[in-house]
């Protein structure tokens, strides 16, 4: 009997130990400290990890608020199969669901925050059998204007965006200029063979022959060393020979 009792106790202890390990597997992660400008919206990020498979119908998410001044803790938001925003209190119509259960995200958004929202926000998630574990806390501070670090980050973000746009425009304009230059060079290369260079000092072959034929031939008289025009001489000789032939014809007729 003692042996059986000891064995049963050992088994029960093992099951209990395994159950404790199982339910303590929930881990929740939040931003910690946050700042928000009065009148703006702020997202309270809360993510979780569970050792058990996510059951969307069984997951329970709850948000609560603990003010800086002494006071009671107030419910902010509740989720179980669907979102349940508060129907009364300072957060009425000021909270919206912004999470994804299957993505292990339990975040919410506070709309148009007020100075009365200064305090600690507690995020708690249960995914049976993981119903115990750590909770996430976010300490929110509502301010009149953004802090220097936030303004610096905002300025850097805006400046980086403007610089990126300017660089993109420069690249686009450079590409267009290069494209236009290439088109002009291509058009110039196509028109170059079509153009014929005309040298005013060079005559057409037919004109050159005509000029050559029309030029008078020059002969040198060996008797006196004088240059005479051969064409003129031939014409004069022909004129002289002409009347003699006519005279012979007249003599014959006589």
UniProtKB/TrEMBL annotation:
<dbReference type="InterPro" id="IPR029863">
    <property type="entry name" value="MPZL2_Ig-like_dom"/>
</dbReference>
<dbReference type="GO" id="GO:0098609">
    <property type="term" value="P:cell-cell adhesion"/>
</dbReference>
<dbReference type="InterPro" id="IPR007110">
    <property type="entry name" value="Ig-like_dom"/>
</dbReference>
<dbReference type="Pfam" id="PF07686">
    <property type="entry name" value="V-set"/>
</dbReference>
<dbReference type="InterPro" id="IPR036179">
    <property type="entry name" value="Ig-like_dom_sf"/>
</dbReference>
<feature type="domain" description="Ig-like">
    <location>
        <begin position="39"/>
        <end position="144"/>
    </location>
</feature>
<dbReference type="InterPro" id="IPR000920">
    <property type="entry name" value="Myelin_P0-rel"/>
</dbReference>
<comment type="similarity">
    <text>Belongs to the myelin P0 protein family.</text>
</comment>
<keyword id="KW-0732">Signal</keyword>
<keyword id="KW-0812">Transmembrane</keyword>
<feature type="compositionally biased region" description="Acidic residues">
    <location>
        <begin position="238"/>
        <end position="254"/>
    </location>
</feature>
<keyword id="KW-1015">Disulfide bond</keyword>
<feature type="signal peptide">
    <location>
        <begin position="1"/>
        <end position="17"/>
    </location>
</feature>
<dbReference type="InterPro" id="IPR013783">
    <property type="entry name" value="Ig-like_fold"/>
</dbReference>
<feature type="compositionally biased region" description="Basic and acidic residues">
    <location>
        <begin position="185"/>
        <end position="201"/>
    </location>
</feature>
<protein>
    <recommendedName>
        <fullName>Ig-like domain-containing protein</fullName>
    </recommendedName>
</protein>
<keyword id="KW-1133">Transmembrane helix</keyword>
<keyword id="KW-0325">Glycoprotein</keyword>
<feature type="transmembrane region" description="Helical">
    <location>
        <begin position="151"/>
        <end position="175"/>
    </location>
</feature>
<feature type="region of interest" description="Disordered">
    <location>
        <begin position="182"/>
        <end position="254"/>
    </location>
</feature>
<dbReference type="InterPro" id="IPR013106">
    <property type="entry name" value="Ig_V-set"/>
</dbReference>
<keyword id="KW-0393">Immunoglobulin domain</keyword>
<keyword id="KW-0472">Membrane</keyword>
<dbReference type="InterPro" id="IPR003599">
    <property type="entry name" value="Ig_sub"/>
</dbReference>
<dbReference type="GO" id="GO:0005886">
    <property type="term" value="C:plasma membrane"/>
</dbReference>
